[in-house]
TrEMBL record:
Residues 23-152 form the GFO/IDH/MocA-like oxidoreductase domain. This is Gfo/Idh/MocA family protein. Coiled coil: none annotated. It holds the Pfam family GFO_IDH_MocA_C3. Signal peptide: none annotated.
Length: 237
């Protein structure tokens, strides 16, 4: 960071999950207050690629030798996304485990985030299990954001629905994903955002300085799991 600042350079982390269109749609719904006061949020990671001795070998074989896996490689994307959606994190609690003896690191676990906004968010990750989707890598799981006025649900096809409190019917607020690019073409969305910001149209997200907070939270998750207790953190804004 210091070298970039000295050089007057923009240091931007290519963290594209927050640019997946379903999360932008959820952010817009939260900004409009469409589900009232948000109290709970859950994301269940279910990519279904972690079973057996050949897990990950066909696509990303280095996964098997990573001593820190589920959080360091995968959940870090939702650490950033949760901050994007719900704001500053004040505490974390983690319970991690390794289910597949063929790999070195953890591949399942639960992480609870307390946000200064009052939201309590749960990352529930298990790479052995799947979810309903034609492409398990599109959303990699499902999400529920629950408020006093209703619930937003993210499905495996990329669609987002809103159900009003006390009602049974769901309204689609973002349609199912039809793009060919990864994660709703989030790579292109991030690159477009950076170009626009560099041209003076909007402010940069995921600057290097801001992303240090994400890395700090990642390390705090491992520290919490090792200590077996909730930890207070400097979770940034």
């Amino acid at each position: 960071m210091a070298e970039a600042q000295t050089a007057g350079a923009h240091l931007i982390v290519h963290e594209n999950f927050r640019f997946q269109p379903w999360y932008r749609a959820i952010k817009a719904e939260l900004g409009q207050g469409s589900i009232g006061e948000v109290q709970n949020a859950t994301f269940r990671l279910r990519p279904g690629d972690g079973q057996g001795p050949r897990a990950y070998l066909d696509r990303q074989p280095y996964f098997q030798t990573m001593s820190r896996f589920l959080i360091h490689e995968t959940a870090v994307h939702w650490v950033d996304t949760f901050r994007f959606l719900f704001g500053q994190v004040t505490h974390v609690y983690a319970d991690l485990r390794r289910l597949n003896p063929a790999i070195a690191g953890e591949d399942a676990g639960h992480v609870i985030f307390d946000h200064a906004s009052g939201v309590r968010a749960l990352f529930d990750g298990n790479r052995h299990l799947d979810h309903v989707a034609d492409n398990l890598r599109r959303t990699m799981g499902e999400a529920w954001i629950e408020g006093t006025g209703g619930t937003l649900t993210l499905y495996g096809d990329g669609s987002v629905t809103r159900r009003a409190f006390g009602q049974r019917d769901e309204i689609t607020v973002y349609p199912k994903d039809m793009s060919r690019g990864f994660g709703g073409d989030c790579v292109h969305a991030l690159q477009s955002h950076v170009i626009a910001a560099m041209q003076g149209r909007g402010s940069l997200e995921n600057t290097g300085q801001d992303y240090l907070t994400v890395l700090g939270l990642k390390d705090a998750i491992y520290a919490s799991a090792e200590a077996g207790q909730k930890l207070a953190v400097d979770g940034g804004g």
